[in-house]
Amino acid sequence: MTDTKTPVLDIQKLRVEYPLASGDTLVAVKDIDLLIRPGEIHALVGESGAGKTTVGNALMGLLQAPGKIVSGSIEIAGKPIDLCTGRTEGIVPGRDVGAIFQDPMTSLNPLFTVESQLCEGMLAHLKLSRAEAKARALELMKAVGIPEPERRLGSYPHQLSGGQRQRVVIATALACSPQLIVADEPTTALDVSVQAQILKLIRDLADQRGVGVLLVTHNMGVVAEIADRVTIMQNGAVVESGLAREVLTAPKATYARTLIAAVPPIEIRLDRLPVPSEETQVTLDARASVRSKSTKSETGSRDDVVLSVRALAVEYGGRSLIPGRKASVFKAVKGVSFDVRRGEIFGLVGESGCGKTTVANTIAGLVIQSSGTIDFQGTALGAKREKSVRKSLQMVFQDPYSALNPRLRINSAIAEPILFYKLASNAEEARQDARTLLEAVGLPADAGSRFSHAFSGGQRQRIAIARALGPRPSLLICDEPTSALDVSVQAQLLNLLKDLRDLAGLSMLFISHDLAVIRQMCDRIAVMKSGEIVELAETETLFIAPKHDYTKELLRLAPSLDRILSRQAAE
Amino acid sequence: MFRLFSMRLLQAILVMIAVTAIAFVMFRFVGDPISSMVREGATQAEKDALRMALGLDKPILTQFFDFVGQVLTGDLGTSFRYQQPVVSLLMSRLPATLELVIVATFLALAVGIPLGVLCALKPHSFLSRLTQATTLVGISMPTFVTGLLLILVFAVTLRWLPSSGRGDLVDLGLWKTGFLTLSGLKSLILPSITLALFQLTLIMRLVRSEMIDVLSSDYIRFAFARGLPRAYIYGRLALRNALMPVVTVTGLQIGQLIAFAIVTETVFQWPGMGLLFTNAVGYPDVPVLAAYLLFVGFLFVMINMIVDILYTFIDPRLRTR
């Protein structure tokens, strides 16, 4: 089909620059080389801002103005790209290069049917008739494994699940039989079980159709699972490149080593995750001060139950315009019971839609339960809550970018709850507390005078944690606190949360879909599925001897560096 | 789909009952119509006779049910001022207003949507800067000023177009139309431009901001990544998404125009419903006012229902499986 000798993608000394308003230029991609042969999956790995997505956009001619290719060359299937237009003579995006985007929920147009979106590329590029295009669309739907392909062609995107949508996206990418596919984080938005299926699909496409795949990802597990070769980027430059197995098992560059080490392992529980920089003395002193304040109110032993949830159920919907008639009810949580002990990190794990976030929101009082009880330090929690209860229950949200008010200086944001709960006698004292908290989470004390946009995602999450610690809570609810962050930042934050627990005797309800993170963090775990807890056990017991089939399934599907590497070594 | 439709119908009926009640209350309690109807120095016996003739002496509930019954049979009473059935008054004025509004809305959409798309796609071009500036003037100038300016330029100075009235009409039985004669069409131009200007600006700005939003969405980026033709992406994939809110706004605006084109109609001496209403307020001609209230309520309820139903056709996410 394709000439096996001509690489499908050959990038040499590619340099992409963005002129900045200040007159400087930002070099997004620094003279990188990349070669992909037919049937090869080449992973491009790096943390956010490393320039990996820019490389993909550059070769598809999708660079956002004012970014431009300054020098270097890109050849797609032996044909050079025109650096001025970003287009390759004889290469049409969509026909010769297919694209798969990160979020299947947003990459399909909500107003058009699957058939229309699958066919439009074929009509435009291959000049097929409508009937021919439809026949081919049906073939593609079968090839990507969508059940009931005939019916699904007439569906709109919202009628499909996330995994099905991503299959449709892959089918559109394949529609014109491209030689190269650029997949930008194709599984990041998906659950592990779906991720495993999609990865297998991409691997099969490469093996059977000889398609070359540029796989842009930050997930080392995904790389280990399907990539042949890997290139690690940092700040726009290539740090290391080679066969995936070699780079993952024996990284040569220092950055590559830290990046791979920062991935939380699922097989073994570490005391601390290795991070490039450790805490300074200032941070440790500040933490000691935070602890001395919080322990004043802490009496009682470690085994005390702080939070006790019994038969908790939450229903959504159910009110109808016509009185006396009940509209359809969605049961998000169906009778969940668990205890969180003092100083314990209790994990809730499950796939999207399993109700884990609803449980957290109910405990935090953001959602009111339909039935069941929540007992917090001897007080039953309902719709109305005492100030002291609200004070002791604080929350850290998933997205650090939207969790902070952009118009408040960091100091004010942290001091606000301290003043509200009258934990400081005056504003100056509250600001002093805020500075100590900032130091305790590893930020410089002068960070407080700035606004949130001056900080990176990881720093913002530290600020959010500092803000939650301000009212001296006894229970911290962390809802996916690190899933929006890079691995090295994630490692630092997980260490921070552990330290805080150890120092301040804090209990935590830790919610995540990432089993590796859960294993590193939690003392006990509850696995949730469709609103119910299917298994609850000590962390080590659960990971070593899972009882429920669903837990076993989750553990089997989670992409894991070590397991895949050892399996490959055995072959 | 059927359920949605029946729910909307039910809501519409509830709203109409409420509007009818308000119209009735107005009928009954806003001033005493008898005092303004009888001649000066009429005796109490004369007043009572008139009161009985109009049925204003019965208990309130009976009056209300009589009123509802009349409304349902299409009898909206007799105008105090013109001594004609209100329905025939409204029907003689409605075509003038409707024709004006239809032309104005068409103008606003036909010019506003392309200009909005242009401003979104080429925000720095001369034409879109010009459009933005002109429409800003258009939206900030009161309707009567634009109307008078247009009359000054095109009617008084250039003498191209008539300054008032509907021109020659063709009688189609119930409906007198100005669409079929040259003078009728010429008379429509100035008032409809005046009326359209505000809507045009609104639609233009709405399309522009929606389009900018949609163009930065993933599915449009994905469409570019698939190398689809630009015209297809902008004109079909993006525009359809951008037009969703335009449907709502246009619907509400049509209602606004029909009900409250008063200023424009006054400036151009347009014999539409606005003039009828203004005169009725001064008199006070309560049956006309009440009928007008009912009519406007009915209009908005109908338009909202049509918009909702249109929505389910445009947006598949609103259709229940």
TrEMBL record, chain A:
Residues 14-260, 309-555 form the ABC transporter domain. One of its GO terms (molecular function) is ATP binding. It is a peripheral membrane protein. Pfam families: ABC_tran, oligo_HPY. Its main location: membrane. Keywords: ATP-binding, Nucleotide-binding, Transport. It is found in: Cell inner membrane. Belongs to the ABC transporter superfamily. This is ABC transporter ATP-binding protein. CDD domains: ABC_NikE_OppD_transporters. The lineage of its organism: Bacteria, Pseudomonadati, Pseudomonadota, Alphaproteobacteria, Hyphomicrobiales. InterPro entries: AAA+_ATPase, ABC_transp_ATP-bind, ABC_transporter-like_ATP-bd, ABC_transporter-like_CS, Oligopep_ABC_C, P-loop_NTPase. It comes from Shinella lacus.
UniProtKB/TrEMBL annotation, chain B:
The keyword Cell membrane applies. Keywords: Cell membrane, Membrane, Transmembrane, Transmembrane helix, Transport. The chain crosses the membrane at residues 12-30, 100-121, 133-158, 178-202, 242-268, 288-314. SUPFAM superfamilies: MetI-like. It is found in: Cell membrane. Coiled coil: none annotated. It is a multi-pass membrane protein. InterPro entries: BPD_transp_1_N (IPR045621), MetI-like (IPR000515), MetI-like_sf (IPR035906). Residues 94-311 form the ABC transmembrane type-1 domain. Belongs to the binding-protein-dependent transport system permease family. This is ABC transporter permease. It comes from Shinella lacus.
